[in-house]
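Progress report, Aim 2. The chain analyzed during this reporting quarter is listed below.
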Amino acid sequence: DRKQFPTFFRVVPSDDYQVKAVAQLLKRFDWTWIGVVTEDHDYGRFALQGLKREIENTNICLAYHEMIPKDYTQEQVLKILKVMKESTAKVVVVFSGEGEFYPFLREFVTQNITGIQWIASEAWVTASILAETYPFLDGTIGFAVRQGHIPGLQDYLKTVTPERYPSNPQVQELWEALYGCCPSTSSLNSPLPSCTGKETLREEHSAYMNTSSPRVAYNVYKAVYAFAHSLHNLIHCIPGNGPFENFSCANLNNVFPWQ
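Predicted structure tokens for the chain:
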């Protein structure tokens, strides 16, 4: 609600900008005959609508649009791959999350489709598991969320254990993913074997511990700090030097959303 919250900002840019950038990329390389594959969610549908809008009145044409089914079935995916194999379009734009795209690529490998230039959306272009598993993705071009450094993050991650955060469901999920076991604090209804929650992070957990170039986490970090600085400024505002009418400050007992 822009009237109630006029100063609200997104944590990451609107997908509209990504779509505009993809269209500019296609124009830049003079790729005029393209296929588009999207996931069957709002993300994919809105991206396709936006891309169609951006390439209108240009010489870029859509050879096909295929949608990765929400309820994955091999039969439907093979139909999509048949279209890709028979099409003369060698540039394929994919708007999908890595989770939806991974099983699709697993099937793609079996079909001997070659010569594809992949254009990636930010949701999968930096997914290391895809790059490491499928060498044919070498040369993929896409747009990523800006990365940055978060001081102290790695040291903090080493302290995150179910023992320290027993009521945090995300920590429980983390342990299940890393160790394939359920911490004793929540193991009653779990099919996984139980564990103590005191296990130490090992070398194979490097993907979790790698904080060299966080992207989404960096944007969350920036948003939290922006909010914290705003609150700090609001609390320490000096009357006569404030940002509101007549250089006034906010009444701390009754702060409005626009403040």
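The radius of gyration is 24 Å. Residues 63 and 87 are 7 Å apart (CA to CA). These observations will guide the mutagenesis work planned for the next reporting period.
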